[in-house]
Amino acid sequence: MKIPDATAANQKPDGPAYQMPVLFIGHGSPMNAIEDNEFSRAWSRIAQSFPKPEAILCLSAHWETAGTYVTAMLQPRTIHDFAGFPQALFDLEYPAPGEPALAERIRQTVEGVAIKPDFDWGLDHGAWSILRRMYPQADIPVLQLSLDHSKPAQFHYDLGRALKVLRNQGVLVLGSGNIVHNLGAVIWKDIAHDWAIAFDQQIRKLILAGEHDAIIHYQQLGEAARLSVPAFDHFCPLLPVLGLQDKGEAVTFFCEKVTLGAISMSSVLIGQNKPDQV
Prior knowledge:
Layout: E1 22-26, H1 38-47, E2 55-60, E3 64-65, E4 68-71, H2 87-90, H3 100-109, E5 115-118, H4 125-134, E6 142-144, E7 147-148, H5 153-162, E8 171-177, H6 194-209, H7 212-216, H8 223-228, H9 238-243, E9 251-254, E10 258-259, E11 263-264, E12 267-270
Parallel strand pairs: 1-8, 2-6, 2-8, 3-7, 4-5
Antiparallel strand pairs: 1-12, 9-12, 10-11
């Protein structure tokens, strides 16, 4: 795919364009949407550390497709894509508007990839469970961009690079997944397997070192990687987020924790606006 020149982005009338930060958030359990805990509080705080976006584009682990799609409806539905949780979670709605014009702009921005408009999906819990904590008023347009399960890791990283122009147009790009996500190794306690901690820390070091190629080829990182990423879906949203990073750009980590044995909540803010306490 062709990577557009980010400097060609629109500028605000009152001066140079502000470059929005980029986020990867480990979303963990859907219960974080209704529980008052260390993660939900951190998501609320992180949103206060940079200007309110004009729109949000979310890449969630929970929307995998054959091909690449972007939601293009005026009012995306709230999808309760889980089972076995309290009724209070199913009763939640996140009535954020969509923005069809932005969906079309995204389709035109990424050359070489046939991004198709979607009018059926909506907002899955990988998006709304986080956003209802960050922006509880649901007054910011939200779109989702799907993950193409037929494409390799490099494709998703390059997709992020191709979307970089959006950062200068007031769009917050948010990846939602988990660096470590192995439901088969879950322990229902606030503890972690040694291999899960080791892989989580290894990815942190690689991000800080700017070693994106090693992260793209995570399968080569050994047994801890194999156990931590048994399926690509939750790891995948990290890659477009890294693709959106400028060389040498500031990185801040928050929610640095592996819990339930094999679920990493570690989250990353890329951008100039570093929070004081997150």
